[in-house]
Amino acid sequence: GAGVSQSPRYKVTKRGQDVALRCDPISGHVSLYWYRQALGQGPEFLTYFNYEAQQDKSGLPNDRFSAERPEGSISTLTIQRTEQRDSAMYRCASSKDQTQYFGPGTRLLVL
Amino acid sequence: GQNIDQPTEMTATEGAIVQINCTYQTSGFNGLFWYQQHAGEAPTFLSYNVLDGLEEKGRFSSFLSRSKGYSYLLLKELQMKDSASYLCAAPWNSGNTPLVFGKGTRLSVIA
Fold first, then answer.
1. Which one, of A105, A94, A111, A81, lies nearest residue A2 by Cα?
2. What is the reported pLDDT for A1?
């Protein structure tokens, strides 16, 4: 596609459920990044990949969060046993060089 | 580590010029990005400065002084559609690496 796409755009779930957020990067982009953005703040780093290799996951809040990019294209961010504090906008970005292009985000609400 | 500081809010009049400042402290300099983010939308890339000086791109210009750890975004001939948050961001390192974002400056353009 023309830009980064993410699905679902909105996700409402109950506390304790697992959720999977998907990111489809711009075709040919080597690098893929996951960020979380609170209202009125800039995006905050979670994890990133070059091709299929996860380069750094130091931004993941705890071990309930994981991410993969098995074929070096689409990536999935999984949150297990969701908690209310996980409610946020989750953004994905991709790049072929240093300039990152962002997707529309997934708004997650944990009840 | 990196620390990025920018004003929280600014207001300017339609047709005027506004300058949004950003100061940063980084362990190693690898350039500075500016992104625009309209409410409820994804951040979109505006500019990337690596060298000192002013880079002009239509109504928007971005300035960098590496020795002073200072950048600004200059918006000319303001239009109502320029009302948005403007995010200053610095990459961790050279190459494809995550960005550290400031909290963003919310610009309101009034008639």
1. A94
2. 53
Give the angle A66-A102-A79 at the CA atoms, nearest 5°: 20
Nearest-CA residue of chain B relative to A105?
Answer: B42
Q: Which residues of A touch B35 (CB under 8 A)?
A: 102
- DSSP-derived secondary structure for A34-75: EEEE-TTS--EEEEEEETTEEEE-TT--STTEEEE-TTSS-E
Tell me which of B22, B47, B96, B106 to substitute to probe the interface with A (most A C-beta atoms closer than 10 Å).
B96
Question: In whole angstroms, what is the distance from residue B85 CA to residue B111 CA?
Answer: 18
pLDDT in tens, A4-54: 999 999 999 999 999 999 999 999 999 999 999 999 999 999 999 999 999
What residue ranges of chain B have pLDDT lower than 50? none
Q: A50 and chain B: CB distance < 8 Å anywhere? A: yes
- 3-class secondary structure, B82: helix
Mean per-residue pLDDT of chain A: 96
Chains A, B: CB contacts under 8 A, how many?
Answer: 56
**What phi, psi does A19 have (nearest 5°)?**
-130, 150
